[in-house]
Automatic annotation (TrEMBL), chain A:
The lineage of its organism: Bacteria, Bacillati, Actinomycetota, Actinomycetes, Pseudonocardiales. Residues 68-252 form the IclR-ED domain. May be an activator protein for the gylABX operon. This is Glycerol operon regulatory protein. Gene3D superfamilies: 3.30.450.40, Winged helix-like DNA-binding domain superfamily/Winged helix DNA-binding domain.
TrEMBL record, chain B:
It is an enzyme of class 2 (transferase). Gene3D superfamilies: 3.30.420.40. PANTHER family: GLYCEROL KINASE, SUGAR KINASE. The lineage of its organism: Bacteria, Bacillati, Actinomycetota, Actinomycetes, Pseudonocardiales. One of its GO terms (biological process) is glycerol catabolic process. Keywords: ATP-binding, Glycerol metabolism, Kinase, Nucleotide-binding, Transferase. GO terms for cellular component: cytosol. The keyword Nuclease does not apply. Belongs to the FGGY kinase family. CDD domains: ASKHA_NBD_FGGY_GK. The keyword Ion transport does not apply. Residues 6-252 form the Carbohydrate kinase FGGY N-terminal domain. Key enzyme in the regulation of glycerol uptake and metabolism. Catalyzes the phosphorylation of glycerol to yield sn-glycerol 3-phosphate. This is glycerol kinase.
Length: 253, 501
């Protein structure tokens, strides 16, 4: 059996100490209690602060347990926190692309819509927040399958219902689409759920780069896709930029 | 690329922001800086206007840098501001005589009580449309004249100037002691208790009642005209728009037709309805106010209903009760139960504002049984915002004779879709959120851009308004009636809690 990793052991000890003392601690107290040189203790605490497991008060410089540790056991972001942090960028994305914008999170075998911004074209639209859409037939769903494999089902466990003639109805067909999505960093849906409607989606990432949801633009396929059925670069660039900005607010560095 | 854009400064209560908008009304960049809140005594809240001026001088260039633009790209500058905050300064040195007294500050309660006791209440109501209250700027100016050494003598000599925040910033931007333009916009002037709301000029009678020398007052100008040209911060750029923040949101939401209304949901909520070119008197507890005046166009009036606690009730639920970690999580908690379980919260933490105006009311939580859990409390918190809005809308409908047929909403709480649906349900009208939540800054930009011809007319601006979300009423009418009656009974129980001292 390979040996344990010393720096992880020391980080764990530092966290136990902070959690059990019940008050914020100074670097000197921590390095003394852990029996470590101050530069070593400082390096460990700085790293823990970067990943959100430790907070440091800006005025007193004292360390305490960070909020990131408490959220370890929760399956992801609160859906309403996610909506709140996405809102401004989702609006800007809709304004810039002329598309509807959705934020989705995995909910068992389907995607739950956390946020919806109308397509800014004056057409009548209905707010679809809290509705669900299938994973295998939408850009949002395929994005989550491709980039959040631990919190989404395997392709073979999905009900691959045929919604349109373009829906992927075999695990192999779906898997090959996910491979393309991973390579491009963006999943697309070409009229696979609703005839004439397409979408493109990229992951929203939280601390440590974990995908916590997906951001999608949606609209008529001819608006989204150019020749050869490839999503228009101008739209995908804006989508990617908005996802990056939202991910920063979610703790992704 | 030499795109022409319009800059807006939103000088708010906690921070000052600079936003740049393109011709489609889309935000290109934003820069923001908070300023310090000074609380010298209970009930007193002050701002250092020198600090705010320094913040303006740093955020405007920062916003330009972010957008990759230069002052030459700016067609005009507009200013939205925190309305009733009051400042006096020396016209020769450019230095304030004291910190500004902000709109939340209640130190003028004695002055207001004396005005009312002297029988001036009716005079103020009939001339400026406002009953004397600590909310407005005039009594603050009187307090400064009475309490700041040298203020009154300086004002009478013509050395000391008065203004609200847009007055201060325009004076500084256009040269300060070296030829700065001393003006106020008509919406802020309408909230000083010194302006005749029909003539839109300073009222000698009201100035006499307040004992304020007219010499120190700025000229009252429309919301959309070139006041002057910047010599600092944006050299050469015309300052061409100024509105109070809530009136700016009315313009930003393009509520240009009588009967159109918007509600901005922040710490509190402010509902304004366009009542057209005639001033609507209020017999239902609303404030008649200037809506906007665009250049030489006919003035547009508005009715305003303010609700003290909306977002701040959610903050209390988070910070004082600790039932949620973040404000958005109240929606998560509320969705754990199907309804309020019979529980109602009336957030009269500092009395009830519009339309009831009961300063002696205090908050109550009623209908508690063993069945109630924190999910029901979360519902009751959100529903309080819905019912308070309903009361203001009912008062608007009664006072204006123009029924609200849909409500445009903006502000942070519009992220709460459960609340927005409840709002549509209890108002029984559609609730709509525009794309981009920056209605206040956008309104200031619109006023400035119209003045310099960047936008040609109001129809162009209407075309920039895009619906980002809409909530349709879906509540059973019988349920709405019963819940409304329950809310009313809950409010009854909040009255007369504070005993006269």
């Amino acid at each position: 059996m390979p040996g344990t990793i010393q720096s992880i052991e020391r980080a764990a000890a530092a966290l136990r100490l902070l959690a059990n003392t019940g008050r914020p601690l100074a670097l000197a107290e921590l390095s003394a209690a852990l029996d470590l040189p101050r530069p070593t203790a400082h390096g460990i605490l700085r790293t823990l602060r970067e990943v959100g497991f430790v907070d440091q008060d800006p005025s007193s410089s004292l360390y305490s347990v960070g909020a990131g540790l408490g959220s370890l056991s929760t399956p992801g972001w609160d859906r309403h926190d996610l909506r709140s942090r996405s809102m401004n960028w989702a609006d800007a994305l809709a304004g810039g692309t002329g598309c509807a914008v959705f934020v989705g999170v995995p909910d068992g075998r389907v995607v739950s819509l956390v946020h919806h911004v109308f397509r800014p074209d004056g057409s009548p639209q209905r707010l679809r927040t809290n509705e669900t859409v299938p994973m295998h037939a939408t850009a949002l769903g395929k994005c989550l399958l491709a980039f959040a494999p631990l919190v989404t089902p395997a392709a073979r466990d999905l009900d691959l219902h045929r919604y349109t003639g373009r829906t992927a109805t075999t695990p192999a067909a779906l898997e090959s689409q996910l491979v393309v999505a991973r390579r491009r960093g963006c999943a697309t849906g070409f009229a696979e759920y609703t005839p004439g409607v397409g979408g493109a989606a990229v992951p929203l990432r939280g601390a440590g780069g974990l995908a916590v949801g997906a951001l999608a633009i949606s609209g008529p396929v001819e608006h989204l896709f150019g020749s050869g059925g490839v999503a228009r670069a101008r739209l995908v660039d804006q989508l990617t930029a908005a996802a990056r900005e939202i991910s920063v607010t979610l703790g992704h560095s | 690329m030499s795109e022409r854009v319009v800059a807006a400064i939103d000088q708010g209560t906690t921070s000052t922001r600079c936003l740049l908008f393109n011709r489609a009304g889309r935000m290109l960049a934003v820069a923001q800086r908070e300023h310090r809140q000074h609380y010298p005594r209970p009930g007193r809240v002050e701002h250092d206007v020198e600090e705010i001026w320094r913040n303006v001088a740093s955020i405007v260039p920062a916003a330009l840098r972010r957008a990759g633009l230069r002052p030459e790209n700016i067609a005009a500058l507009g200013i939205a501001n925190q309305r009733e905050t009051t400042v006096v300064w020396d016209r020769h040195t450019g230095l304030p005589l004291a910190r500004a007294i902000t709109w939340q500050d209640t130190r003028t309660d004695g002055i207001v009580a004396r005005l009312t006791a002297a029988g001036h209440g009716e005079l103020f109501s009939s001339v400026c449309g406002l009953a004397p209250a600590t909310y407005f700027a005039g009594p603050r100016l009187r307090w400064l004249l009475d309490n700041v050494p040298g203020a009154r003598a300086g004002a009478e000599r013509g050395d000391v100037l008065f203004g609200t925040m847009e007055t201060w910033l325009i004076w500084r931007l256009t040269g300060g002691p070296d030829g700065g333009v001393h003006v106020t916009d008509v919406t802020n002037a309408s909230r000083t208790m010194m302006m005749d709301i029909r003539t839109r000029e300073w009222s000698p009678k009201l100035l006499a009642a307040l004992d304020v020398p007219e010499r120190m007052l700025p000229r009252i100008r429309s919301n959309s005209e070139v006041y002057g040209t910047c010599t600092a911060v944006l050299p050469g750029v015309p300052v061409a728009g100024a509105l109070g923040d809530q009136q700016a949101a009315l313009v930003g939401q393009t509520c240009f037709a009588p009967g159109e209304a918007k509600c901005t949901y922040g710490t509190g909520a402010f509902l304004l309805m366009n009542t057209g070119t005639r001033m609507a008197e209020s017999t239902h507890g609303l404030i008649p106010t200037m809506g906007y005046v665009l250049g030489d166009d006919a003035p547009v009036y508005a009715l305003e209903g303010s609700i003290a606690m909306t977002g701040s009730l959610v903050q209390w639920f988070r910070d004082s009760l600790g039932l949620i970690d973040t404000a958005p999580q109240i929606e998560t908690l509320a969705l754990t139960v199907p309804d309020n379980g019979g529980c109602y919260i009336v957030p009269a933490f500092s009395g009830l504002y519009a339309p009831r105006w009961h300063p002696d009311a205090r908050g109550v939580m009623v209908g508690l049984t063993s069945y109630i859990d924190k999910g029901h409390l979360a519902r009751a918190v959100l529903e309080a915002t819905g019912w308070q809005t309903r009361e203001v809308v009912d008062a608007m409908n009664a006072d204006s004779g123009l029924p609200v047929t849909r409500l445009k909403v903006d502000g942070g709480m519009t992220a709460n879709h459960l609340l927005m649906q409840f709002l549509a349900d209890v108002l029984d009208v559609p609730v709509e959120r525009p794309l981009g939540s920056e209605a206040v800054s956008l309104g200031a930009a619109y006023a400035a851009g119209l003045a310099v011809g960047h936008w040609s007319n109001l129809e162009t601006l209407r075309a920039n308004w895009h619906r980002a979300a809409a909530w349709e009423p879906a509540m059973d009418p019988g349920l709405r009636r019963r819940e409304h009656a329950n809310w009313g009974r809950a409010v009854d129980r909040s009255y007369d809690w504070v005993e006269p001292s």
